[in-house]
């Protein structure tokens, strides 16, 4: 009679499994991801990102506010320094002459504009005048072929 006793050096194959998990399998189970589904992973990611954004937002706001302040201060300082320096540097006689010339030039320009507007109203433009103006213009350049 033949007895079937297990061989002492026989290894289990992949189809045969032991009823209780080994210590290595239990350790692997503990190290697996803590998320059971993609929904849980998404939810946890959203919460982590929100928490980090709430921590970072005040710092970013502070940096942006400082940068805006520095740029504004620099622009204001540069503009007013240049104006104050020019005011102190240029002699008053030159300032008076330039101011007088600007005011006289503005008055002459207004007078010329008024005269032109009044003369233009007295002679209405007719279609023939418009055709003459078009004919006196140079012809368009031919397009390159």
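Sequence proposed for the structure above (145 residues):
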């Amino acid at each position: 009679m033949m007895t079937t006793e297990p061989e002492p050096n026989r290894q289990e194959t992949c189809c045969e499994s032991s009823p209780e998990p080994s210590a290595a399998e239990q350790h692997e189970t503990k190290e697996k991801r803590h998320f059971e589904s993609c929904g849980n992973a998404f939810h946890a990611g959203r919460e982590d990102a929100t928490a980090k954004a709430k921590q970072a937002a005040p710092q970013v706001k502070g940096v942006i506010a400082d940068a805006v302040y520095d740029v504004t201060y620099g622009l204001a300082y540069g503009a007013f320094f240049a104006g104050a320096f020019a005011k102190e540097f240029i002699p008053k006689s030159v300032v008076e002459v330039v101011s007088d010339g600007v005011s006289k030039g503005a008055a002459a320009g207004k007078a010329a504009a008024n005269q032109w507007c009044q003369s233009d109203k007295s002679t209405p433009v007719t279609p023939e005048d418009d055709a003459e103006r078009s004919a006196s213009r140079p012809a368009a350049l031919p397009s390159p072929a």
